[in-house]
Amino acid sequence: MLLLHLFAVALLASILVGTALWLYWSFSGEVSKYRRRMNAAAYNAQVFFDQREGLLRSVAGSSVRNTDGMPAARTPKTFGETGQVSVTPLLKENNTYEWALVLTPRDRADVAAANARIVYAPAQEPASRRLPLETRRRAAPISARTGQWLSETLALRDPSPGLDGRAPIVWLRPPMDEVDRFFLYTPLDASSHDRTWIGLEVDGIAAVIAAECASDGGSYALYDSNSRVALHGGPLPAMIDPVASRLGQDSFGFQGGNWFPENLVLVKSVGEAGWKLAYYVPMRDVLRHGAAAFWTAGAVCLLLVAVVLLAVRHIKRKLVEPALRQYEALTDSVALNDKIIEVAPVGLSLVRRADGELIMSNEAARRLLDEHDGWRGDIRHATAATGGREYALTDGRSVYLAFAAMTYRSEDVVLCGISDITGQKEIERTLRNAKLAADKASEAKTMFFATISHEIRTPLYGILGTLELLALTGLSGQQQQYLNTIQQSSSTLLRTINDTLDLSRIEAGRQELDVAEFSPSDLLERVVANYAARAQGKGLLIYAITDIDVPAAVLGDATRILQVLNNLVSNAVKFTEAGRVVVRAAAEAPGPGRVSLRFQVADTGVGIPADSQAQLFEPYFRAHAGLERDISGTGLGLAICRRLSDLMGGTLSVVSEEGLGTSIAFTLTLDVPTPAAPAPLKRRPVYVDGAVPEVVTNLCGWLNAWGAVAMPYRGHADTPECEDAVLVQAWPPSAQEPRWKHGRVRVLAPGSSRDSLVSAVAKAGITSTFNPASIGRAVRMAQDGIERPALGQAHAQRISLGLRVMVVEDNVISQIILREQLEHLGCTATMLSNGAEALRHWDALDHDVVITDLNMPLMGGYELARSLRKLGYTGAILGLTASAAPEATRLGLDAGMDQVLLKPLPILVLAQTLHDLAEDLN
Fold this sequence. Notes:
Elements: H1 2-61, E1 63-65, E2 78-79, E3 85-91, E4 97-103, H2 105-113, E5 116-121, E6 129-130, H3 144-155, E7 170-172, E8 181-187, E9 197-203, H4 205-211, E10 219-223, E11 229-233, H5 241-244, E12 251-255, E13 263-270, E14 275-282, H6 283-289, H7 291-317, H8 322-343, E15 347-352, E16 358-361, H9 363-369, H10 375-380, E17 386-392, E18 398-408, E19 411-420, H11 422-471, H12 477-507, E20 516-518, H13 520-537, E21 541-546, E22 554-556, H14 558-574, E23 580-591, E24 594-603, H15 637-647, E25 651-657, E26 661-671, E27 685-689, H16 693-705, E28 709-712, E29 726-729, E30 743-747, E31 764-767, H17 772-783, H18 791-796, E32 804-808, H19 812-824, E33 828-832, H20 835-840, E34 849-853, H21 861-870, E35 876-881, H22 886-894, E36 899-902, H23 907-921
Parallel strand pairs: 21-23, 27-28, 27-29, 29-30, 30-31, 32-33, 32-34, 34-35, 35-36
Antiparallel strand pairs: 1-4, 2-3, 3-4, 5-6, 5-9, 7-8, 8-9, 10-11, 10-14, 12-13, 13-14, 15-16, 15-19, 17-18, 18-19, 20-22, 23-24, 24-26, 25-26
Helix pairs in contact: 1-4, 1-7, 11-12, 11-19, 12-15, 13-14, 14-15
């Protein structure tokens, strides 16, 4: 055994020595490789310095002294018959010169190729100057402070020639200069006391030095003749003083560290001015690049050591008695099992299946099983291999018995586990009671908000309705201003109520989605039309863009998506004082039958501070609460947008910059129904004219996708005459009306009423603002020569709607407002107080439309609608409610109503609804 151990130690020592030699050779090879790379980088820097110094001596050799004192004005600009040799005086402040440069085209080309500028420092002048010669790129100006520093520094330099007889060259880097550039100077006459210096301003030296740095983590430092750092790149080592001591001569070695160096350092001389270039490579880079060799050596070492140790271990294991180990393990296992059963927190027992006797059990099992006698029979007669039952003990406690059939010592036994679940049952009862209490509280909260909604909206309807009717009467300017203030305040109150109720309904989990088919393009058109008047009133440009990838129809809750977009556009218009608001829709297809819609609302408003963007979607938070001109708002709009987005599985993201504007993107994934084939257009020229290039380009894309040959309209002179061509005048329109004699489609401003849809030119189709499908249909009609009728004139001749309307409303104020609104619209109104009274006075021939409140005494609107349908009434039944809950609308439609309107009911909404019904009746 001793010889085995000695042999193993000798093998391990040999393995360690061989591994150490391998690591040394690998490390030396990595260091040599880095040294070659550092030398190559230093050589490039030396070439750079030598070339600029040679160029400077060439320029200095082109200087001539003005011995005759010739004035600058009489000095010729060129020299020679060809005029290619330029003469450039080195002017002083008094417009005289002592020296001039005679430069050939080659000299000027060499200076430009070196990306350098010629500078000079006249004797007894306070600042250095730059010659006005052409360069390849524009250079940063030399500040007065930099020029003064250069002149003062050169004044302290000795212009005497060196031991080699040549004029000295001085490299300078002004410490106050923020531009990456150097200056090198040489005296024009080293033998005299004239201290006029000629120099070059060069840049790009950092790029040359760092271009071939030996390591990604390496760094460099350029030291001047006084061992001061003039330029550096990358993180310099903390211990730089030991390196400065090496600057006296070129060297290579290690630097830093106590027992292991931190850096490789190469010091090389560059130029004639005694400057030094030092490259630093961290040892961690050397180790990282040589890691493969180092890890290989370590792995081989560990493998050999493991082989030796495993061999020794295997030999030792053969001397151990296997039987003794097995016996000891068996004894320990039996003792362990007994202890586990005894100390287990639950009851454990082993029951013989034949007679139900306990073979093995712990104290907890015996105590619990003695409380109930029926368990033995249940276990013996159980057919399943595993199972479990609950038992109620005589003292009120509950236990759970889990069992599993098995074989023990050739007998059929059952392993039982008994747990006291009394606490769990108590927790379950507490949770059930808490859930019932929470459900009751939620129902009470829902009923409270429904009641509050009804009680607030009903009188608010009286206020807003009266204000609308008052606005239709003759008012003075001051009265109209007061009226507008009251209307705005009332609208703000209504919006606050709506936002609060929506947020409460969402947080209570009672907000449901109504998924149906809708058009994203129509949705964008409605959003822009809703806020077009407000935007135009502030002088803003508002428009929508729908990408051609957006499908014509998708499946989703259009009402909730419209609510999100309305909130976003409302904020954009509110916080934008100049510029534009743009609503965009784009689409991506994540899979078959699915589409990812991305709605973006971008504005050029005040922007949102970066520290406020994280709280932007929190309730009651207002990012612009500190503005000098505070803008009204509850801070609930964006919070509701976030809740609705989460409800629909979408996301909201914001990008904003103060003073530039805000862009909020709403993204969600929806199903796509089977698309209907769009009506193809004839392959004929279609010219698109408009003020916004983005709108023109987008519209051209849609028309080209449908088969037309669409292109932007460049003007009458640049557009070839073609009788089959169609001109589309997009909105916003161009400043100048196009001169066009053929088919034309005019796109109207958002929110235009039908009374204003009269074309200004013959053969002009009229279409909605931002709906590509509507524009495509209008273009097809123009291609086919079909003219749109002047609907506006025919509609303008209609003085009243002439409808007979039964109004069933229990609130007196609402009755008065509805009567006034209907009479203003030219309708005959019959006012009744509840559904029972309406049935008593019912005559289907006397009423074209029935408007009924949903909640009334004796008989509500739901029962009235069902009763009228049973009586065979086929006319329109409109529900009227102060509840904003979607259930009210669904219940009304299920009861047979055609539409459910929400209080307060604006007269424009009522007019549009009745106008559509009147057209259907006619």
